[in-house]
Design a protein that fits this description.
Blueprint: H1 22-32, H2 55-63, H3 83-93, H4 115-123, H5 143-154
Length: 156
């Protein structure tokens, strides 16, 4: 909150256990990047309303190659964000750096769209698995987890 990346869910609560959705995670990333103005104001997503809290963040994230829509006209801003998606967004925001170690997780198949981001997150101390052999790819991230990942990835 001191860095202005997020605020509470109201004046007295942060709601750390509340699930994060795609709009929230992208907005947190955009805020961590300094809230840059997107180059384009053309919004291809029918489910991201003009003037919504996440509109600029979504446009910026798409321009930066951090994410795309769930299809050509939908971003699915209210869809819950799982661990695989969150670390993929972070990895892309950091420039898609290479990961070099061995994959210890049985739920992260080689070649999966999230395999390199998961390995990168592990190697960089952003997160570990939910056990020694599972990353927990499908587990939905809560607000506390997402801001912790952001802190570890960006040092803010």
């Amino acid at each position: 909150m001191q860095q202005g990346i997020t605020s509470g869910t109201d004046a007295a609560h942060f709601s750390p256990g509340q699930s994060c959705n795609r709009a929230q995670v992208v907005t947190f990333l955009w805020a961590a990047a300094g809230r840059p103005e997107p180059k384009s104001t053309v919004n291809p997503f029918t489910d991201v309303p003009k003037g919504s809290f996440c509109e600029k963040a979504v446009l910026w994230a798409v321009e930066q190659g951090i994410t795309s829509g769930t299809d050509a006209t939908h971003f699915s801003p209210l869809a819950s964000c799982n661990r695989a998606t969150v670390v993929t967004f972070l990895w892309a925001a950091k420039g898609k750096p290479a990961a070099t170690g061995a994959n210890p997780f049985t739920d992260v198949p080689d070649g999966a769209w999230y395999a390199a981001p998961v390995l990168w997150a592990l190697e960089n101390g952003i997160t570990s698995g939910v056990s020694a052999t599972e990353f927990g790819t499908a587990a939905v991230c809560n607000r506390a987890q997402v801001v912790t990942f952001l802190y570890k990835a960006f040092g803010q």
